[in-house]
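**Folding the chain**
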Amino acid sequence: MKTLLFAWKYGWPIAIPFGKSFKAEGEGFPGYIREYGVSLNYQRFLRNRLFAQADVMPAWQTFVNDSGDKIDQDSSTGSRDCILGISFCDVI
C-alpha cells in the first residue's frame, strides 16, 4: 500500500472550454483554489502481466481571492478508482 500527500493550486476555473468562453466576461475566477489531498492506493499483480489497483483520494479545498484573503468556506472532495490492467513493462 502506498500513501502520498499532495498539494496543488488551480489558478483558473476548471471545465471552461477553450475558444470564446475561455476569456469571456464573467467566466474568470478572482483568485485561486489551493487543494490538499492524500492518496492511498493498493496494487497487486494477479497473473503474469495482469494487475488490479484501488485508489482513494480525499482532498480539501481553500478558496482565496486576489488579495490573499480566504473567501467562502473550505470544502472537501474525493475520488475512488478501481483499475484492472495489463502491464507492458517487465515484471520485477
